[in-house]
Please model this.
Amino acid sequence: MYSLIIKMAWKNSFLRLPRTLLLITMIAVSMSMMIGLQGLYDGMANNMLDKNKRSASGDVSIFAKDYRVQKDIKYRIKNAHAIREELQNIDGVKAVVLRVQVDGLVATARKSSFATICGIDLKSEDKFGRFSKFLKSGEMKFDKRGAVIGLELAKTLKVKVGSKVIFSAQDISGEINSIALRIRGVVQTTNILLDSNAIFVDISRVHKFLGTSSNDVTQIAIMSDNKNLAELLKLKYSSLDVKNFFELQPMMQMMQEIMFIFNSVTFIIVMGVVFIGILGVMYVSILDRIREFGIVLSIGMHYKYIRLQIFLEALFVSFFGYISGAVLGGILLIYLRDYGLDLSAFSDALEMWGYEAVIYGTIKISYFTSTFIAIISASLLSVLIPLRKIKKLNPIEVIKAEK
Model:
C-alpha cells in the first residue's frame, strides 16, 4: 500500500508541471538569495574582525595595569622581551609583537590634530598580521625619519607621501618632546581608530624619542588559535592587564550580534515567502482534485493514506526546490568569496564605518543545513490547512456536487 502511495505522490507532484516548476523556481531563487545575503553579512563581519586583529589587538593583548585608562607612558611593561619568549613557547601561539604607543599632537605648517604615535617593528608586524598589505600609497619604509600615516589622519592634515609632520608628546621624564617625520606611506587598515589617529614609526626611534628602554613596551599583542589563552595568561600574568579581542573591542561583538539579527530576519522573511508559496500551490492542487479525494474516501481508503500522500507531494516538490536553491546558492557564494561585491560607488561611506569597497562573502555548511530544515518544515506545515479541508470532507456530497 505504501509503495502505491509513494508512486501516486510522485506522479501527482508533477501532474501540473508548469505550476510545479514555478514553485521549484520560487524556492530556489529565494533560497539562493538568502544564502548569498548570509554569506555577505558574515563576510563583512569576519573581514572587520580580521583587519582589527591584524592591525591592532590580535586575539589577546597584554598591557600594564592602568595603561588603558590613563594612556600614560609611565604605565608600561618593563620586561617585554622576556615575556615574549615565554609566550612564544605556549602551544597555540602563532605570533607575538611588541608595540609602544603614546598620544600627542601632530602638526603641519597649516594643520594640527591629536594623534597616536605607534612604534612597531615592520618585520614582526608583517609576520603577525601582514601589515604591509594595508599600504594604500607610497612605500612601507621607516628609514631617515620615515613614517606611515593612517588614511583618515592624512586627509585631516591634508598631507601626502613626502610631506613633513611634527609630532609632540610627553616623554618619560615628563618633558614635552618633538620629532620631525617624513611621510613615506599611507595605510588603510579599516580600523577606524588607527586610520584616523595613528602614525606608525620604527619602534627603536620611538624608544629614543620617549627616552624609554628597548625592553619597555605599552602593548604585547598575540595571535593564537587557543581559545583559552586569555584565561591562561590572566592567571600567569596577574600583575598585568590581559584582555581578549572582544574585551578590547566590544563594538565588534555587538556588530556580530547585529549581523546575526540581520541573518535571522532575512531567514524568517524568505521562509515566510516559501511557506506562502507552497501553501498556495498545494491548496490549489488539492482543490483541483477534491472529487478524486472524495471518491477514494467513499470506497474505503483511510484518511491517513491521503494525508501521507499529500505530505509526500509537498516533500518531493520542496526537496527539488532545495536542491536547485543549494546549487544556485553555492555558485553565488563561490563567486562572492572569490570576486566579492563591488560597492565602490559607496566607498567613502563604507570606509568611514570600517568596511572595504569590495565586500567578500564566506561559505558555511550551516547555511545549507539550516535552510534544508526550514524548507522541509515549511513544506510540511503548509499542507496542514488543505488537509483540514479534506478531513472535513463529505465524500457523497462532493461526488454529487461535481456531477
Q: What stands out?
A: The mean pLDDT is 86. Residues 17-57 form the longest helix (41 residues). Residues 279 and 287 are 12 Å apart (CA to CA).
